[in-house]
Amino acid sequence: IDMAMELIAKIRDLKKQMNVVVLGHNYMTPDVFYGVSDFIGDSLGLARKAAETEADIILFNGVHFMAETAKVLNPHKTVLIADPDAGCSLAESITAEDVRGLKAQYPGAPVVTYVNCTAAVKAETDICCTSANALKVVESLDSDEIIFLPDAYLAKNVAQKTNKKIISWERGKCMVHEQFTPRDIQAARRQYGDLLVVSHPECDTPVTAESDFAGSTSQMEDVIRDSSRKNVMLITECSMADNLRAVFPEKNFVSTCQTCPHMKKITLPKVYEALLNMQYEVTVPDDIIARARKAVERMIAIG
Ligand code: 13P
Ligand code: SF4
């Protein structure tokens, strides 16, 4: 703990010396999340903060596709990530060439990309979405048939709520959320009568169907705040409950979670090194930025 406090103090000093904004995703460990962030939130909220910032440098404590999105929105700023290998199984599941193939297969169908993909994939698409606004984005499009990439389970969750035909990418799965099963929830419901079950829509539909609510990481927090139930089960990454325990000390977080090895690559010592050495800079080619930006900005405009 002493070492963590010392690092947090050093990181805060460096932040003061440089015009840097530190963004922290909800899946960061509490030391990184609460210790050094200027803004915390889900991927949509942090993309908005990245779009608004006046800082010269953005340090994104999250995974690589999130930092890339910040770069796409701020081509003239320096965007840093403390570990460039913090990837995402969804982002790795699809290439720009794959998207071009799908567009050829379904000509005329607009393409929605979940933000969990590379900037090169975003550049091939019409509009982005996150789990906070996926349905709204799909409904905003003037077409009965929509290509939705790369998360097959989020696509299934959206398909259940819209009349539009959703064409998905079967290979796209979140390696963390695909681990959960409805049985995890059923067992806990037997134990706690008043259980509030909140899951992420990157889980398969049998899991979200067993839940009281499925939504983005920040929407989860709102639902817990609005609920009078004391026992809460979060079907998502482990740090989410660790961070929310501090917000809701009166609630009992029933334990079940999976760790995202990518998110966990961002540690306090690496955040310190990132500011000390100005590493690792996230770069995206100009032509990709120009095309990907349209898709991201269109999403931000929708809200
Ligand atoms: P949110 O947009 O809900 O923050 O989710 C990002 C993510 O990677 C979930 O696994
Ligand atoms: Fe990607 Fe899943 Fe990790 Fe989120 S939790 S960054 S979707 S692998």
Give an overview of the whole structure.
This protein is an alpha/beta fold. The protein has 3 domains: 2-86 and 264-283, Rossmann fold; 90-173 and 287-302, 3-Layer(aba) Sandwich (Rossmann fold); 177-259, Rossmann fold, CATH 3.40.50. It has 15 helices and 12 strands. The strands form 3 sheets. It has a 4-stranded parallel sheet with strand order 2-1-3-4, sandwiched between helices. It starts with a helix and ends with a helix. The model has no long low-confidence stretch (mean pLDDT 97). It binds 1,3-dihydroxyacetonephosphate and iron/sulfur cluster (SF4). InterPro entries: NadA, NadA_sf, Quinolinate_synth_type2.
What fraction, in percent, of the residue positions are helical?
40-55%
Radius of gyration: 19 Å
Number of domains: 3
Shape: globular
CATH topology of the largest domain: Rossmann fold
Task: List low-confidence stretches.
Answer: none
Give the bound compounds: 1,3-dihydroxyacetonephosphate, iron/sulfur cluster
- Major pleated sheet: 4 strands, parallel
| Straight-line distance between termini | 39 Å
CATH architecture of the largest domain: 3-Layer(aba) Sandwich
CATH superfamily of the largest domain: NadA-like
Secondary structure: number of strands:
12
Tally the helices: 15
